[in-house]
Each structure stands twice: as C-alpha cells, then as structure tokens.
Amino acid sequence: MPESAEPTALYRHFDANGDLLYIGISKDPEGRWMAHRGNREPWIHQAARRTDEWYNSRPEALTAEAKAIRAERPPFNGAHNYADASFDPATWPAIAGQAKVPAIADLMRDEITSGRWTSGQRIPSLRTMGEAAGVSMRLVSQASVILQGEGLLDFQPGRGLFVAQPRKAFPKLPHDWFRQFGFPG
Which residue, 1, 26, 110, 115, has fewest beta-carbon neighbours within 10 Å? Predict the structure, then answer.
C-alpha cells in the first residue's frame, strides 16, 4: 500500500516551562492528542502546549520526525532517540574455523571494552556485522546472545541491540556477615 500523500503534521508537546516532551506525526494532531490522553502516556500530565508543523505527505513528515527526534532528543520518545555506534567493517577480520560464534562475540566485546561502542548506543545491524566478518546473521545473533548474558548488550524490541548501561557493583559480604550483624548462627 503506498504511503499517503495527505498533509501530515509534525507535532511537538512542551511542558509549562517550554521544555520539549514528545514529538510525533499525525494527519489529525488534535485527535492524536486525545489518543495520547486515552493511552495515559507518562508525559501527558506535564503537557501544556503543542506546536504543529505541516508537511505535504506522510513520508515527508516521517523523515522530518526522525530528524527532529535525533536532533532534539525529547525525553519521552523511544524511536530514533539514540545514537548509533560507529562501525568500520574493514577493521573486522573474516572469521573462519569451527568456533565462529565465540570469535564474533570477541570482536563485539572488543568494540565495547575499547570504548568504540559506548553505553546507550545502538550497535550495527546483525547483517552489517555478519557481512564484515563473512558469516551469517544467525551466527552474529548467537554471539549477541552471549553478550546479552554477560550484561554488555540489551535487546530492545522494535529498536535493536544497544550497549548496556553499566551495572552497579555491590560489595561482597564477608562469609560471616550474619554474625557481624547480630544474627544467630
């Protein structure tokens, strides 16, 4: 089905201080506002003002929306509201041999531990990494599962794989902690 050629608005919602809350598109911004209210969006009670910027078609509005979200970083938008990790496929060697999945996981882990991919960035697509290493997307997916298990990557449905936020390390309790805190033992 072809995209609509109907005029479509790019709307922005702001709080009472003029801080941007959310960016979206709709052919009917007022109707979309009512839908946001009905869905009880977490930012809805803060919204005090809306601006509308009209485009000739939905595809034009979609492009403008993605660009605006990336540039303005509204706190309540998920889509497009992230940085992509840089990636140079030429730096990855072709993977051969039996242990391809661990080798790919090592390459991905090195991108993170070296600081080339940083916390909160979306990593390149499985296809892109697979092509760089000369392996299938399935093998790259298996490697990503290893890194998710290690807490280095987070999968966000509908958005992709992201470098995980660092987790707080909690101090280890001594083996006799219960006695130190007065518990019978």
Answer: 1
The owner of tokens 């509908």 is 158
Residue with tokens 């007065």: 182
Given a cut of 70, the residues of the chain with pLDDT beneath it are: 1-4, 158, 168-170, 185
Dist. CA 130–CA 128, nearest whole Å:
5
pLDDT tens digit sequence for 81-119: 778 899 999 999 999 988 999 999 999 999 999 999 999
Are the CB atoms for 5 and 59 separated by under 8 Å? no
Give the position of tokens 């496929």.
89
Distance CA 138, CA 129 (A): 11
Instruction: Determine whether 124 is exposed, middle or buried from the number of CB atoms within 10 Å of its CB (0-12, 13-18, 19+).
Output: buried
User: What CATH number does the domain located at 89-163 have?
Assistant: 1.10.10.10
pTM of the model: 0.59
**Closest to 162 (Cα-Cα) out of 177, 151, 173, 171:** 151
Q: Do residues 131 and 146 lie in contact, with contact meaning Cβ atoms separated by under 8 Å? A: no
Tokens representing residue 134 in the block:
């000369």
